[in-house]
Amino acid sequence: MSMIEFKNVEKYYGNFHALKNINLEIDEGETVVLIGPSGSGKSTLIRTVNGLEEIQEGQLLVNGFDLHDPKTDINRIRKNVGMVFQHFNLYDNKSTIENIMLAPRLVLKRDEAENKRMAMALLEKVGLADKAANMPSELSGGQKQRVAIARSLAMQPKALLFDEPTSALDPEMIGDVLDVMRDIAKDSSMTMLVVTHEMSFAKAVADRVIFMADGQILEDSSTEAFFNNPTEPRAQQFLSQVEHH
Amino acid sequence: MDLLQNNFSTFLQGFGYTLLSSIIALVASMILGTFFAILQILPQKWVQKVGNIYVQVFRNIPLLIITFFFFLVVAKLIPMNGFTAGTIALSLYTSAFIAETVRAGILSVNSGQMEGARANGLSFWQAMQHIVLPQAFKIALPSLGNQFINLVKNSSILAFVGGLDLMYQGNMVAANTFDTFGTYIIVALFYLVITLPLSYYMQHLERKLKHAA
Fold first, then answer.
1. What pTM does this model have?
2. CB atoms A85 and B123 under 8 Å
């Protein structure tokens, strides 16, 4: 069953045509990596999936609900779709564990003891159990991102969106974050859509790679096919550029 | 010293009314100010406009005129004494400045905070209450402290409408004793009894919150 489905989606910023006739289907449990040069619309596309960006035309079905339908309650979709940002967006006024516990408490009305137990288990999973009481300002970038991932997981979402999760990190921090993401991808029921420039991660983890340029999807193929013989000249060019540095 | 001793209960009564008016106006103007600050950052243009008109009206008219308006005009429709009229005017006037201060605070909270909260499943109002406003107040704190101190001093407009406050009682004492200079020194000292602890408290709060995060 498809978790995310774009049907002829168009997105404009004023006169700028940001997404052009997007058709894309992502199945439940799939891990899909979205790559492309900067300004190609990758971030815009991923942000439409949980309604942070509105679409102007077409249909966008997430977990069976149409995001373009005004009757759809966006908060209900967001309950099931987590997002991890480039700049983490942790709550600066809350401790690490409170960052994780807040949404389950307010949105899911999860029992407080259960909430705490789950939050600690998640911190354990991302290797930061000893940082539970720390404020975000006391964490490194890599630690912040792992807390942000734990915060998303605490809602027990069906899908997770990653918008360049390692682009703002120092090189030595990237590995830890990718390890956590790799772990999540192993969970066969979690749908993951990842915008990244980490080609090794894409090769190792993705079921499918989507290549975008100028607001269009130019290539949508299995990971193996994409890296071994990309069909689009622009994808070939992009790959040769990112792989030779 | 005799002046203070002989009129102590009068000064004390004035002090009490000034303190009461200030506390009521402080609470009311914080609530109103925060409300109109939020109106101005909501996406709907007409709602923003309503917030903006409120702020412009009460920020740009002298406090004394607002006070007279309530005491002379509104009191004809809804009977109220000078203390009430003055306190309402003081609340509305101060709330316009607080709205601007809080709005600036909200705007200087990184937009990623709201986005992170919404993506995490929180509603706009939950995100405001738990994430954005606490950070906005912290940023706005030094400026809010200024507003609070101004508010206490501005409460002296109550004297113009028989509001029984410190300034009003001071005027009475000065008229009775002819010791104008001495009386207003005492009045000034009574104001300092409120404003000095208030400004120390605000500075303390600022330091405390700075260390908290």
1. 0.88
2. no
Structural domain that includes position A130: 73-191
User: Which residues touch B156 (CB under 8 Å, ≥6 apart)?
Assistant: B18, B165, B166, B167, B191
Instruction: Specify the pLDDT at position A190.
Output: 92
The stretch A199-225 carries a mean pLDDT of 93
Read off the pLDDT of each residue in A40-49 and give the average, rounded to a whole number.
Answer: 94
- Kindly state whether residues A125 and A157 are assigned to the same domain: yes
> Does residue A36 form part of some domain?
no
CA-wise closest residue to B126 among B113, B117, B115, B116: B117
Phi first, then psi, for residue A12 (nearest 5°) are -125, 145
**A103–B121 C-beta distance less than 8 A:** yes
- Is residue B212 pLDDT above 70, yes or no? no
* Domain membership flag for residue A5: yes
Minimal-distance CA residue of chain A relative to B135: A93
Query: Using CB atoms and an 8 Å cut-off, which of residues 98-127 of chain B contact chain A?
Result: 110, 112-113, 115-123, 126
CB contact under 8 A, B119 and A155: no
pLDDT tops 70 at residue B156? yes
The CATH topology of domain B2-212 is MetI-like fold (1.10.3720)
A-chain residues near B123 (CB < 8 A): 75
pLDDT at A162 (0 to 100): 96
Domain ranges, ordered by start, for chain B: 2-212
Residues 22-81 of B with CB under 8 A from A: none
Q: Examine residue A231 and state whether it is found in any structural domain, yes or no.
A: yes
Do A154 and A111 fall within a single domain? yes
- Rounded to the nearest angstrom, the minimum Cα separation between B209 and chain A is 10
CA-based nearest distance B42→chain A, Å: 16
pLDDT at residue number A245: 54
Q: What are phi and psi of A154, to 5 degrees?
A: -60, -25
Q: What is the pLDDT of residue A231?
A: 87
Q: A46: distance to nearest CA of chain B, Å?
A: 12
Quick one: A185 and A88 in the same domain?
A: yes
Task: Give the residues across from A16 on adjacent strands.
Answer: A13
Residue (of A83, A73, A61) closest to A8 by Cα position: A61
Report how many domains make up chain A: 3
